[in-house]
Amino acid sequence: MSTAGNTRHVAVLGGGILGVSTAVHLLREGASVVLVTEAELASGASGRSLSWLNSAGERATPYHQLRMCGIDRYRTLFASDPSRDWLRFDGGLHWADTGSDQDTVARHEYERAHGYDSVLVSPGTVDHTPGVSRDALGPVAIFNPGEGWVSLPHLIGFLMEEFTSRGGELVTDVGTARVRVGDGRATGIDTDGAGSFPADAVVVACGPQTPAVVAELGVRIPDASPMSMLVTTAPVDHAVRAVLNTPRAAVRPNPGNTLALDHDWYEESITQDADGTYSIPEAVVHELADEAAGLLEGRPQLSAASWTIGRKPIPGDGEPVFGELGSVPGCFVAFTHSGATLGLIAGELLAGEIMTGRKHPMLESFRPGRFA
């Protein structure tokens, strides 16, 4: 339902996929929107996300359903222009440690039980995932044909074209920002570097900083955000199309014939420097690149062109946090580990709640009030 005649002024805090998606969906619904970011667009978690589009493995039914809707929105976008090199649906390939074959089979059976497309493969039957070394593959692996990947910086750039054409206002490099409260409700955003932005409603979607921002409002959202790193390789000749999730490296294709790499085994090697930035020994980065190279046919030499480090947003109970704060009306929160998969659908549903005042049933399990 269109609400274009009911103009609302909304301030969105956060320049990642959740903030940008919500801002664009609000503009589509007729709101006046200012998007405020601490630094540049996609400079936080969205810029270092593997951004694997999936609902693999075991999770609660409402979470699975929301993720499947998220994938559906990406499929619609993909169908509008299948030639885009930053959004693809070529499946996902997963295998665990050699001693976990029973766990892999159990995961496959669970996925099949609720209709998730899941195929058991072995080194002799992995022909439908080109570019993968048969020697590296575990004895038992799972291929999920319906999965895909997106480059979030490219997607954010694409959405921002619409944001600008619809009259949205973008303010970057504002530094520290806070939700302004008046008469018991959110009334805008105050920043250290760019002044204040009055609004009828506020959206807090600033990744791992979200719990700290709402803590100033007296709202507790448990935070389990770990350290993470995303490595982007130099261009390399490869045939990989699927996202690979393996015991020592996760790999996905990336625009420009590059690859994106991550994992979690090196978290303890990341240190925080005196200026608040993070660093990791280059030897660890090269080790990850070597692990990834061993997964690829012909074992090409992979060199790290760049890497980014920061906290990966994960709520304390692992479940997404979406919706209005009960104690601060007018302040809405978007905080989740699955920001890539849920990016489009979460922005759509949150914008609908802000513009209509009606709560969407698919977000009911994920309200911030569950931590009260």
UniProtKB/TrEMBL annotation:
Keywords for the protein's UniProt record, in alphabetical order: Oxidoreductase
Organism superkingdom: Bacteria
GO molecular function: oxidoreductase activity
Cellular component aspect of the GO annotation: cytoplasm
SUPFAM superfamilies: FAD/NAD(P)-binding domain
InterPro entries assigned to the protein according to its UniProt record, in alphabetical order: FAD-dep_OxRdtase, FAD/NAD-bd_sf
Pfam families membership: DAO
Domain FAD dependent oxidoreductase: 9-351
Listed PANTHER family: GLYCINE OXIDASE, SARCOSINE DEHYDROGENASE-RELATED
Protein name, UniProt field: D-amino-acid oxidase
Species of the source: Arthrobacter agilis
